[in-house]
Request: fold
Amino acid sequence: MMKPIRRMVITGGAAVLAVTALAGWDTPGDTPYLELTGAGHGRGMSQVGAFDSARQGSVAERILEHYYPGATFGTVPTTTVGVRLMERDGEGLDVHADAGLRVAGRELESGQAAHMTALPGGGANVVVTVGCDGEVLWQAATRDPWIYPIDPKPARSAAEHLTLCDGPAYRGALGLAQEDGAARTVNRVDIEDYLLGVVPAEVQANWADKGANEALRAQAIAARSYALAEQRYPFAQTCDTSDCQVYPGTAKEDPRAATAIATTAGAVLLRDGRILRAEYSTAPDGGQPADISTFDVGPKPAELAVGKPPTDPRVTPADPGSPTDPRGTAALPGSTIDREYARIGGESSAIGAPLGPEMRLPQNGGTYRLFTNGVIIATPTLGAQIVDFTTLMRLVPDPAVPPSDATEPASPRGDTQSPSPAETPTGAAPPGLQPVTE
Reply:
């Protein structure tokens, strides 16, 4: 039995002090419903205070209004977030999925694993094996250092989640970036899928069974706001530890938390129209309202990388034959994608830095280019569009590469040298997607 703890409870918008007798959680295998570790961010919403307030009848919106006075509510469109997996710094990727996966423009079957290592000049080397430790099936270099689920849409079944051979499973895509010559692992994931991992890791999903479901809803809104306001790295917005928000992939997902998240879909806190980096804490005394003028803010909801038609009249039709820099450091002047990128602010914009050269869409339908937080696509009919990675995967078909294009087993897993030109398959870029040349 836990001892009574003095806490702040919000009732009808007013803060009052109350003593709450807390009974221990008695469901076998479930987590005690007020077992919180660490101090959180040290300010903002008290998770303990939110729990007590919810049990007293406060809804999530009133809880958040108390802890973030002056903030307003907004709605973000479907978007993704890049999460740096901190414990994997300096490592490659060894990934499988029960339903199969996609890598280097090819589709892997169930029972096959992809082993990816970053190449010094960008891109990655991929070795595919039977299982995580079995026979080498093929090897290739690729400009695209990402491993994708078989279906890029959010809310997919567990069989489609990408699973590390030595660790947890993740929704969305897994990729490698480089920082000062060292590899960094990034999970690019739909924001709502991301919250499925964060919310039950930051608080207890069983709060829903103790009359505190509104605290879960408040946590979902605060966590969504925090992640989308972050921009910690050139290659990812946030991280997976308590320095940011605890995110263990799918390990702690719970249907009770999922229900609370779904009822807040897209909801964020704003300050002056920009997404508030809504910090929160485990303060046991209920905490205090925060001065949100001292909190960082991120982009406006409309600035997030989403699939939408262009609205600026200066956007012109695509010129798919325009030249680009093959090193992927910057698009050369003159391309439609370059003009759109410059218009929205270049590397300081919400989509961040470029990740590679412009590539052709199938059937010469236009071009696209990957950036840290999104994609710019240019077509003759629609001009330039900013889309997210999931939208790109929906737009671009991915037929299998003929077996003759793959290399024979040639090197052990973890080889960081690019195959020779004769060994590099045409599948180094997804089939039908070739770098734009003059």
